[in-house]
Specification:
Helix 11 packs across helix 12 and helix 15 crosses helix 16. This protein has 2 domains: about 280 residues, Spore Coat Polysaccharide Biosynthesis Protein SpsA, Chain A (Alpha-Beta Complex); about 80 residues, no CATH class. It has 16 helices and 10 strands. An 8-stranded mixed sheet has the order 3-2-1-4-7-6-8-5. The mean pLDDT is about 95.
């Protein structure tokens, strides 16, 4: 009788699709890149960039999931099939020499599940199966998107990080593609504003040592197979699956950041997902402006989280910002605080429980509650970015994009 391996419970406990491949990977395969693809022939440029990346010791497979749902228009299903057939042809003839291409065609997904989250989950689940078949729980599952390019050092940076650190999860720094020969100026300018926002948000959280201040971008992370199954896999959401998954991951495991930008997402306008670069770029262009969370709200959050080290003691309630107590409800907050204290044997455990309650989801909901506020109205991105950089000690602002990038890469 075969002994249980690290993934058996996962495939029994969670709903997953049947296997797509019957063969086993070679014993030396230690990295599998997973790419969801919907009506996007840019994926061939993505694969070319993977093929052209500097080689590493790891043997690498790439699973591309060409996916659609029951509500997908037939014209897109047809284009999907053309893309899949070309992918399969390249796989059959061994077109790529440094990577092994494994295409999947998944069609007819129920409309309640169809979307990038389920597509990403399907590819990552298949990567788990392949690692399980060769008993490799520390195999690395890498997430990428069909419209992203990678740096020449992509695999080298990933391998260096994962080999030098005993961490189960990595995030990667990024820069969008800003090729003026490919993309119009208005798209590039709008995307730069959106990228500034991504860095503004993370840096604002880092300013008060928030432990979950990481980039949560679907094309910019990797996780070991065993850690993936312990987290219950990728949530099959139609958008924001990367945020939910990585925020869950960071609560359970250390997450290491590769600080060198090694992924270059597309700045294209898109309606494939409800969140992210594509719809954000479209909205910025249509509105002609981009307003973001008021910097003063991050100051309120900073005052709140700075009290966590002493909050297990009574008598600090008066110091908690009124905006927080109004949002949470004072009585509810006290119940949470007392419950955290009751079930914590150390101060460290108390703070961990408090952060579990007041996590990244709480921060987003709190900030969103002020979208229509007259007291803390949204602020122009450029002005908000300048305010934040000044809080980091940057006195002269001459290129907000470059300076925000430099600050975020530190």
């Amino acid at each position: 009788m075969r002994a249980m391996n690290f993934a058996d419970y996962y495939f029994v406990r969670y709903k997953v699709l049947p296997p797509f491949f019957k063969d086993k990977p070679g014993k030396t395969v230690s990295m599998i890149v997973t790419i969801p693809c919907l009506d996007d022939d840019f994926v061939f440029q993505t694969l070319d960039s993977l093929e052209n990346a500097n080689p590493v010791s790891a043997k690498i497979e790439v699973i591309v999931n060409v996916n659609s749902g029951t509500q997908t228009p037939y014209v897109i299903i047809e284009r999907n099939r053309i893309i899949f057939n070309e992918l399969q042809h390249k796989a059959d003839i061994g077109f790529y020499k440094k990577i092994r291409l494994l295409p999947i065609l998944s069609e007819g997904t129920d409309r309640k599940k169809a979307g990038v989250g389920f597509a990403r989950k399907t590819a990552m689940d298949e990567a788990v199966r392949r690692f399980a078949s060769i008993d490799t729980p520390d195999g690395l599952i890498v997430a990428l998107d069909a419209d992203a390019l990678v740096a020449k050092t992509y695999f080298q940076e990933i391998e260096k990080a994962i080999n030098s650190l005993s961490v189960p999860c990595l995030t990667f720094q990024f820069q969008h593609q800003y090729d003026e020969k490919v993309y119009p100026a208005n798209v590039i300018n709008a995307c730069k504003l959106y990228e500034i926002y991504l860095r503004y948000y993370r840096l604002a959280l880092k300013a008060f040592d928030f432990p979950y201040a990481i980039h949560t971008i679907g094309s910019c992370f990797a996780i070991r197979a065993e850690a993936y199954v312990k987290l219950g896999g990728m949530p099959p959401r139609q958008g924001g699956e990367d945020f939910y998954f990585l925020q869950k991951a960071i609560k359970m495991h250390p997450v290491f950041e590769v600080k060198t930008p090694i992924v270059f997402p597309s700045p294209r306008i898109s309606d494939r997902v409800p969140f992210g670069t594509g719809p954000s770029v479209r909205n910025i262009i249509e509105k002609g402006k981009f307003e973001v969370y008021n910097p003063m709200l991050f100051g309120v959050l900073k005052d709140f989280y700075s009290l966590f080290p002493v909050m297990e003691h009574d008598g600090v309630k008066e110091q908690i910002p009124g905006l927080i107590l109004d949002y949470v409800d004072a009585e509810k907050f006290e119940e949470i605080r007392l419950e955290c204290r009751k079930y914590s044997s150390t101060s460290h455990a108390f703070m961990k429980r408090m952060y579990d309650h007041f996590d990244a989801f709480f921060v987003v909901k709190f900030l969103n509650s002020f979208n229509q506020s007259a007291d803390y109205p949204p602020v122009d991105m450029m002005e908000a970015g300048k305010t934040l950089l000044q809080a980091y000690g940057v006195r002269e602002i001459f290129d907000l994009y470059e300076q925000m990038l430099a600050q975020d890469l530190k």
